[in-house]
Specification:
CATH class of one domain: Mainly Beta
Structural class: mainly beta
Shape: globular
Distance between the termini: 36 Å
CATH topology of one domain: Jelly Rolls
Number of strands: 8
Strand order of the largest sheet: 1-2-8-3-6
Order of helices and strands: HEEEEEEEE
């Protein structure tokens, strides 16, 4: 039971093979919300080869981890390659974007609390 959020989040207290929760779609970037709260969210994304997302800024730190393939990430004009199992914290207010030289899947976790200090 997802408390009225059927299809939006994964079911609680169920095992999930995370890399299988989201599939590749030709010529697309696909995202699925794992958890969404006012204090943050966890999202899965799959990128088909050649796809990318436009540059963006987030007011919060974002932790990303590659769960399949490898990703090209640009943060403030510096390029990084993240391979399977690798993760990185993208700082708040950093201009960033992802590019798929080949297919990849990732988990992105945004924590919106703790910035009050």
């Amino acid at each position: 039971m997802n408390n009225g959020k059927e299809g939006l989040e994964l079911e609680k207290l169920q095992k999930h093979i995370i890399v299988q929760v989201i599939q590749y779609v030709p010529n697309s970037v696909v995202s699925k919300t794992i958890m969404k709260r006012i204090t943050g969210n966890v999202t899965l994304s799959s990128f088909d080869a050649g796809e990318e997302l436009p540059e963006k800024l987030s007011p919060y730190d974002t932790f990303v981890q590659i769960i399949d393939g490898s990703a090209e990430l640009t943060v403030n004009d510096k390029q990084y390659t993240l391979d399977l199992g690798e993760g990185m914290i993208i700082p708040s207010h950093a201009l960033h974007h992802f590019h798929a030289n080949k297919q990849f899947k990732m988990i992105a976790t945004v924590i919106k609390s703790g910035y009050e200090e």
